Amino acid sequence: MIEPLTFMMGKYAAVLPTDRRYCRNHMWMQPADGMQRFGFTSYAIRLMQDVYFLDWSVGDDTNVKLKQQIGHIETSKAMSDLFAPCDGMIVRFNPSLLEDPSAINVDGYGNGWLFEMQATGVGSMTVEEYMAFLDAGWEKTQNMLKGHM
C-alpha cells in the first residue's frame, strides 16, 4: 500500500489512506465482500468531533439514490442528516455503531465503517482528487467554522 496522504486542517492532520476512493460528502469507499464499504473520512470526523448518536432512516436491502437522506447523526457540533454517497442498494449497516458509535471517532477507517452497499462508485474520487477537492473548499470551511465560534 502506498503511504497515506495528509491534508492539513490548520494544525490538525486529516490522514487519507490511498487504498480507497472518496465521495463529495466526505465518505470513503472501499471494496469489501463484493460490495463497497463506506465510512467517514478523517476530515469529516475532525469537523464533527465526537459522534454521540447515529440513526438510519432506511433499512438493509434498500435501493437509494445519490443524495437521498438515509439517516441522522448527532455530534458535539450539531445534529445533521446523512445522505447516500451514490446510487445503489444499501445491503447492511454496521450493527455495532447503533449501540455505540464511538468507533467512528477512534477507528474511522476500520471498525467505524458505516454501511456496505452494491454501488458502482460513479462519482467517486481518487485520494489525489479528494485532496484537491478539500483544498478548493478549505477557505470556505474555515470561514464557516470561524462564524460558529
What does this structure look like?
The strands form three sheets. Strands 3-4-5-11-10-7 form a six-stranded antiparallel sheet. The protein has a three-stranded antiparallel sheet with strand order 6-8-9. The protein has helices spanning 42-48, 95-99, 102-106, 127-147; strands spanning 5-9, 12-16, 21-22, 27-32, 35-40, 51-56, 62-64, 69-75, 79-83, 88-93, 115-118. The mean pLDDT is 91. It is 26% helix and 37% strand. Strand 1 (5-9) and strand 2 form a beta hairpin. The radius of gyration is 15 Å and the shape is globular.
Features:
149 residues; alpha+beta; OB fold (Dihydrolipoamide Acetyltransferase, E2P); three-stranded antiparallel β-sheet; 4 helices; 37% strand
Structural class: alpha+beta
Bulk shape = globular
Placed side by side, the strands forming the largest sheet appear as 3-4-5-11-10-7
CATH superfamily: RNA polymerase II/Efflux pump adaptor protein, barrel-sandwich hybrid domain
Name of the CATH class: Mainly Beta
What is the overall number of helices?
4
Number of strands: 11
CATH topology: OB fold (Dihydrolipoamide Acetyltransferase, E2P)
